[in-house]
Amino acid sequence: MSLQSWFELLASGLITGAIYALVALGLNLQYGLMRILNIAHGEFLMLGAYATWAAHTGWGVSPLLMIPVSFVLLAALGLLIHRLAFQRLTATSPNLDVFEARGLMVAFGLMFLVQNFASLVWGADLRGYDYLTSPVSLGGAQFAANKLLVAALALAVAVALIVWLQRTLLGKGVRALMQSPVGARLVGIRTERLHPLMFGLGLGLAGVAGCLLSMTYTIAPAMGEPYSVTALIVITLGGFGHMGGALAGGLLLGVVEALGMHFTSPSLKSLLSYSVFILVLLTRPQGLFGRALKT
Asked: Element (H or E) spanning 165, and its range?
């Protein structure tokens, strides 16, 4: 392979990995802070994609303008879901293990509920639209302009979230709560306020990811499930609760998939992802970057 071919292959992997990272950050925020393993996370990504598609094809709204709209809509939905479901589970669960088990069952229900809602409203047909599909030359390789834009925006949002966690008082409160819930409460951090806000923020990030994905791929009611699984793989790679690890893990998984599919077969994409997942669980179950939040 030529140097240009290697560059194109690695760049393609990083483009995919940027989306993986953004999806995983929202899920990691929910699990690392609240121990909610929201396997319905991808379904809310799907809602963000459909909202963008409907606005663009129905009213001509630019997908770029739909990024903040998708974030706000999904974040508001997240606040509502947390109040109606997970807040009640917190009050009624006798311990954290019971809460995690019940939360997982609620997430299963949400997954099928949202999928069937999307099928009812939009049908099961594939949907999509053309947006910035013209090729752009980068380092001698050709990429679709929409994919480069999606990767850049996904990375920008992911980095902005990590910087926010590092630099702001609220972000430091979130990190403290991830590291030691008891210690955070002892110094006066209000978990009853942070939990719904961060659950909403997690779904808002899923909405942004869905909006970005709709610019480059077709969408369908079942599109969210693979991204939920991929997000679990990514946060396993990076370490649960480790936001910087989720970003690095997403980029790494994207590159591994790109290289693996090139040297084997595109049909083996899932096999490659699951192989990496199992290998990390067996050899380094705390993740490549450990459990501590070091963003």
From this structure: helix 145-167
Q: What tokens does 50 get?
A: 């459909």
Residue 114 to residue 127: CA distance in whole angstroms: 17
pLDDT at 293: 40
Residue 197, both tokens? 């806000």
Q: What is the pLDDT of residues 120-156, one digit of tens each?
A: 999 989 999 999 989 888 777 788 999 999 999 999 9
β-strands 135-138, 141-144 pairing = antiparallel
3-state class (DSSP) for residue 127: strand
- Can you say how many angstroms the Cα of residue 210 is from the centroid of all Cα atoms in its chain? 9
Task: Tell me the residue type at 46.
Answer: M
CB 242 within 8 A of CB 291: yes
Q: Are the C-beta atoms of 13 and 260 separated by less than 8 Å?
A: no
DSSP E strands: which ranges in 25-165? 135-138, 141-144
CA end-to-end span of the chain: 36
The mean predicted confidence, pLDDT, of the chain is: 89
Angle at 208 between CA 202 and CA 213, to 5 degrees: 125
| C-alpha–C-alpha distance, residues 91 and 249, integer Å | 34
Q: Cα dist. 258→14, 156, 265 in Å?
A: 9, 22, 10
